[in-house]
Hints:
Blueprint: H1 2-13, H2 29-35, H3 49-56, H4 71-83, H5 88-91, H6 104-109
Helix pairs in contact: 3-4
Bound molecules: heme C (2 copies).
Amino acid sequence: xxxxxxxxxxxxxxxxxxxxxxxxxxxxxxxxxxxxxxxxxxxxxxxxxxxxxxxxxxxxxxxxxxxxxxxxxxxxxxxxxxxxxxxxxxxxxxxxxxxxxxxxxxxxxxxxxxxxxxxxxxxxxxxxxxxxxxxxxxxxxxxxxxxxxxxxx
Length: 153
Ligand code: HEC
Ligand code: HEC
């Protein structure tokens, strides 16, 4: 009984990875236009400041494409991402180039998904959050908002 209460309290005290990750109110328009056209404008809390810096410093060669914004926008986006970055210690190593989908935290949160789903033509890639999280653009990542019926439990 006591340990159950403790677990509940710990759960409430550790909101580090919640199912609601809306973009912060100070999100610059440039982040959505420059970083949300090819994929989801990812929640900044899902990478550390160091990993966002590495990402922003290598946009000339970004996963086989070129994603370099104009200098003023780039500066604004980089500052925003670092302001709202998550803690590297909690997220885990994101690899090189940094990927949210490579962090230990992401892997843990998705470890019940059968391997075949990551190669499902409906999904294509772990980076394609919206293929499963229908309301990812609104920051909603709860199990109730999963597009693939087999994954909804
Ligand atoms: C021209 C298209 C394009 C633009 C613009 C773009 N990206 Fe990407 N990005 C990609 C591609 C392609 C991938 C790899 C997707 C995959 O593996 O399925 C990717 C992957 C990523 C990943 C890793 C996703 C993961 O966890 O696996 C991050 C982080 C990222 N982009 C951040 C950004 C940021 C920040 C910006 C804005 C400065 C940006 N991207 C703009 C094309 C783009
Ligand atoms: C193959 C489908 C799929 C893809 C692609 C996917 N997810 Fe998930 N995600 C899930 C499922 C299923 C869960 C577990 C939902 C649950 O039971 O709470 C989950 C859980 C989560 C959670 C935790 C929610 C909670 O309740 O704590 C977050 C945050 C999340 N995903 C973010 C992302 C992000 C960001 C991306 C893209 C970089 C992504 N996911 C890509 C299927 C997916």
